[in-house]
Every structure is written in structure tokens, then in C-alpha cells.
Known about the structure:
alpha/beta, Glutaredoxin, five-stranded mixed sheet, 16% strand, Thioredoxin-like_sf, SCO family protein
Amino acid sequence: xxxxxxxxILMIILFIAIVIFINRFINIEHNDLPIYNPIxxxxxxxxxxxxxxxxxxxxxxxxxxxxxxxxxxxxxYRDKIYVADFFFTRCPSICPIMTNNMNKLQGLFxxxxxxxxxxxxVTPEMDSVPILQEYASKNGAVQSKWNITTGDKKHxxxxxxxxxxxxxxxxxxxxxxxxxxPNFVLVDKRKQIRGIYNGTLDEEIKRLIRDIKTLKAE
Length: 218
């Protein structure tokens, strides 16, 4: 084989390599986010009634009370992409970091009507509306963007365990029951879970922001 033949082969190899690189780049940049079902989670995070389910999981109906005493339901998040977390106002450890990061998300997406935030108190018996109102004011929460909520404890804990898969331990939402999780949960417009993030870590928040933008482009 002559010199020209070798050059030709090298050019073909180079061309194939470039095509592969471009395809990988495109796949990375435009990769669809997974849709999470119960089977995709650590079984410890999944209520026994949901274990093994591998399709069609969506966040269940919810009815909560926000910082201004207004009822908040799924209808307020219809056709929205939203981030949910579980916190309590007296938490001295991870919750202030999580709340600060929710505030960052609020600022970044303030003018984006497709994006909302939802915080659910895990000590609703203590976090009354006046307390939540003070907490929301202190942390700059804007109700049209970020609902900080209380409500029936059993309802909230069932949401955490059966809808958002944010709690490892089991319980019935009773007086002695308590959950504490750093997870931020990304939910799409069809009420499907599309991502789980550690709400205390900057790199995870950056990943969450990228994933929100990916969802908007779907």
C-alpha cells in the first residue's frame, strides 16, 4: 500500500474519531434526564407498598398550608417543574444550608414562571403559620415562587416516604416519628421524579440547576 493509501486510511480513522466525539458531546449536552420509579431507589428509601414498582410513579395528591395561611395543592404546581425539600424551622444543622440553597434557586429562577419551589415542615405541630411566615420573611421567600408549608403530619410523612422517597426510616407519622433528610427532589410537569440531590452541597446544587435547564428544554 502506498503513501496515499496510508494517508487515506488515517483520514478515515480521524473522521470516524471526530464523529464519535461529536456524538458523545451531543449526548452529554442533550442527554434526557431519567424518570425515577421506586425500583430505582435504595429499597430503604421506599415504602414497602411501593417496592418493586418500576413504571408510572408520580407524586401523590397533596394539600398543605403555606406561610401565608393559604392552602397549597398539586393544582398550584400543575404544569410546573419544581424542587421539593423537607425541613424544620428549629433545625440548627443542615436546614439553614438547605434553605439558603433554596433561596439561591429562587433568585436564579425568579422570573421563570415554569419553575417553583416547595418546602414541607417535618415538625408541623411546631411550625405554625405565624412561625413559617417569620421564617419565610427571614429567608426572603416569595410565595408566588416558594411555598414553605405545614399541614397534617401523617400526610407529610406519607408524602416523604411514598411519593418523594426522601426518608430512610420507617414510621407512621405519629408523635414519636421523625425524619430528617438533606434531599432536594426534582419533579417535572407530569409529577414524575427526575432527580435527587444533596441540598447541602454546592456541586449538587450546580447539578440540579443544570438538570432544571435540561427539563425546560424537553
